[in-house]
Description:
The chain has helices at about 20-40, 50-60, 65, 110-120, 130-140, and strands at about 75-80, 85-90, 125-130, 145, 155-165, 180-190. The protein is α+β, with helices and mostly antiparallel strands. β1 (about 75-80) and β2 (about 85-90) form a beta hairpin.
Amino acid sequence: MTSHHRKLSPPQPRQPTRLFFLTLGLIAVFFGVTVGASWTNNVLTRSPKTSVSADIQALFPQGWAFFTKSPREPAAVPYLQTAAGDWVRADSLPQAGANNLFGLSRNQRAQGTELAIIAHLLPGFEKCADYVSNCLETAAPPRTVLASPTRAQRFCGDLTIVMQEPVKFGYRDRVPSQTRAVSLARVAITC
């Protein structure tokens, strides 16, 4: 064996660094303080006016309200009338439906944004405090013509956008429909 041939040693496992453990420790302390501060009475609570939770909320002001929407708030739902005269939803929701590959397709994600833009561009909605089916059949607000405001162009043609809200939980078994219309607008969208 010559001197230029060295015996290679197996690679040594890398030792965790101090930075990794320091970061892990800071994350653990942060989660510990936030969980502890969320409890009403504990050692971390200084006083009602100056608590750790108030300090955390000052640093990180987002709460669950940022991520969620009230289920009682009216929602815009697009409907179209078939050749037979029936009213059907024009969107492809719910996401877990077969037409969306049981949640695997993400194409319907842009529909809410496009619908909100269209609803914002409408000059106004006609009030109709009744069940959705009754409002669709009886109300006849003037039709607004709009060019599609988005590149996605998922909604084209004659639509009726209904602002609808769910029936209160206590009354759900006493009414024929789970949703009620608040207002509606008719629109013709050119694509």
